[in-house]
């Protein structure tokens, strides 16, 4: 539908006769000699007034946007001021105009009052002039005098109500009088009261949202003149028109150019309309905004919200009547009652006052103590649980009241439902809701308003505290979304029934006139005309701005003249017919379907003189796009005045807000009219300017841009490049985070609007706009951007690169020429039983897919030997060949058709690839057959235990009690000590003390009536090495530190471990040099240790020794330092043991020939003969019953050749019976050998022989200094002696030389020289053996 043509309102036709006459009267008061002073004074006055008017108009615009509560014309509406009166300060004898904009239905009547007295124009002809046109009402006071200083009111009335707007007018005298002058010369003040400060509000707190238990601060910044730290402005805070006092629940501060209210402990009691009122020199400055406080998370799911406004009424000495307001219930179960708790002031313990929930919102609390103070709180109850407690009440003392307030409730029951609910447009994120009051009020507390998105079943609360009026602005809605609303009335008995729902309404700004344009700047002048530009209104009023009107005036006059009668659609205008050398001011009004908006603030005075500089004029219309946390894009328009040559580029300067130090962002001038700025600080506010450049230099900078904050809009999205899945079109798309009815998507390429272009097409649907390329190619590469008009800067850009375009073109081709995409091409796998499965997987299949398998150019169908199937969910198509043979070699192909898409995949299975597949299939067939009987589920493998025992293990399956298990090595059966238990599912064969002798082929067999299975394990080569390494790993970890042990042959270093075998990789080192086994350095070991012996040590063998045990991965090292005292002690012990061994070797001894017992008949001869040995030749003595026997005729003793000793008794008699012994000894020692002789008479029975007790003849020996080895140390086998082997009947005379069990070396004691012959040595036992001394 076409918009109606704009008609100039009648009230724009103005005459200036009165104002001109008044100005001429004023100007005659100044002398001609003061012309220069007048010009300067007027310029300063106009500049100051422009700033004040600008701030005032900003306030008017914001107030108008905050109060925009237009209703549809068909509904009645009480008067409401869209633009309220504002205070004015003027000079004496100058006129002032008060104006306001009022709406209402029917149209309200406006009356003017001065100080509460009606203004009558007839009482002072020419003094007052009252006008009323198109809802704009004005009062003009001409020739103001000081007595006109007063508070003026505009009262608007219709049949639905009354509304009032007030403003103060202050009239001042020029300099020299009692009032301060216009130039700012402040007279001396003895005291400055806050009400004498000039305060201008800047950033104001918006509509805010909080949650119970949280905190929030409402802040309003301001400019204070003069700014005195010790005299802050007087600020008052109100909630729902009730003044707040500072306390724990409301913290207030006014300092540092800001007024702040902090609510540290939010509760729903804090919800309401908050107003900041600051007393200024000209009256008061106010700002209001609503604070919404929502319920905190419930203590139990579905529990109600907390009650609020707990108050104690009817206070007495023994009871208190407590009342409260019920919470809103939207989706929760209905409230069934309330619990009231009390707490003594100063305590933290709460006591429940009622045992059963009370159903009404009041309760008398009894049992109070007289004179004590209490706090109260309330909890709501429903079927889901109990709510959080309310905020506690104020402190109440239980005293007899003098004048108590009584809560009367004569009407019983909840109120009736409210009447018709009407929702109208308000702003882009709020809706104005009004309703009819219920017919039966019943002591109403207020109303709860609920809303929901059309199409949703979930209602949400719009307020959390009962609202007293029948109209409410619902904030925080999603722009462009459609909602419906309902209302409930509240009293002490609960909530009424819900009202009927309102009609659905989209969240859009109310239709109003646009706000004022701003930023009027001069672009050029030729001496008779000035070209000016301005910026669009910040608020279009819900309709497209379709016209601008410009007014001008001589800076020395007060009369404005229209520049254009016809509407101007562009934001640039050349004003002609000007006088050169005169200063002019301009103001602009914007118009839309609703009418003409308020005028802009007057521009700064502009002198009409011809521009002749060579440099270009200023760029203009600076705007921003794609504002993000760390970047933005700034755009501008080329200067109108180019100078002496064409503009060749631009410089962009930036500074932080409040700073005057600009930084140039580009070192070289850019030729295009945009620049992406990066490296911004998130949340920081910046100001920009642009300087144009031509061949003659850099021109004057542009007007400063609007401050822009580096912060992305909530919900900001970026342009998405993609390809339409249905058509294959390449497109760019943006989903706007906000939009309104008048919004449009403006697409640009390299920041030049695209407009109607055959290469692209633009479509929009809802919040989304799409730019579709007709036939994309390299000419379409570039940076594309889109701006959503009539929003808070919704915009985005995307750079289309060649790679990205090629990728999308490939995808577009695939969509337009569809194929069935495959995740996996045709492949095969060998299944159990030797079956072969051919398969492929598509990304997606539809139920209507068709396909066929072709093998060697012949189609194969599902039948005997082949099974063909597919699964739509997984996208798999497969064929299974039951019996795979040589005949199956060849090429396999699958052809697929799915709708319009098709594809095929092939697999060539010939040659070595086929042979490998056939081999695997045959193996799987055999495996399947094998597993039908008893079989090995895990073939033979080895493990090594902690004691280094090698275990050969296997696992079986499908066995039964009759299954037989056997072990074999090299086909010889091994019968373990413990029979294998096949039913356990596992068998193991231990191989202790593993060494090279255990190499070979081991076999395990498993058989029963169902079949037989065999597992073979070859322990040789690498397998043998792996076992040795596994043993070395455990043995090396268990290895002890090196231990020193001395022997007669030398010094030995020993390392004990769990197990040692020579096959382990062990290396002995001396001073980091490897030691090879030799006569000097002997290397060996036993099952429990490894040793290295230094034979005949010398000083060369001192130093650091180590043993390294390698397991193939890790090397285990143990060390010993054989030097210093350690070497000295060891060497001395070695010498001692060597001397003892030498003595043992050369001592005297009997080496054979003597019996243990001799029984002989009397009269016979007895010969006791033996062989002796010793070096030097030993001495021989014979004894009878421990008495030495001398050689006689009866007893003859001989010792021949130092080798053969004999005792011959001729014709023995019973007296010759007894214990005989021989003592063989030299200087190194000797031994006794005893013989028992029994003589019996002829004819007597031969007596039983009695053996003598052994007695050792070795002298005492010194103890050994060698450390004792561990008890489990094995005894090494000594070398064979060079001496003759002893007789079985000889015994050692040095028992200390007997080796300790399992000791590697003997720990014998060194013998001492033979004792004197006079000392009788006991006869040694003949059953003891002397050890063979080791060989050097």
UniProtKB/TrEMBL annotation:
Record-level GO BP terms: sarcomere organization
Pro residues bias: start-end ranges: 1266-1277
Domain of life of the organism encoding this protein: Eukaryota
Gene3D superfamilies recorded: Immunoglobulins
Low complexity composition bias: residue spans: 1278-1321
UniProt entry keywords in alphabetical sequence: Immunoglobulin domain, Muscle protein, Repeat
Chain intervals for the UniProt region annotation (Disordered): 387-420, 1246-1336
One family name in Pfam for this protein: fn3
One GO CC term on file: M band
InterPro entries linked: FN3_dom, FN3_sf, Ig-like_dom, Ig-like_dom_sf, Ig-like_fold, Ig_I-set, Ig_sub, Ig_sub2
Gene Ontology MF terms: structural molecule activity
Protein name from the UniProt record: Myomesin 2a
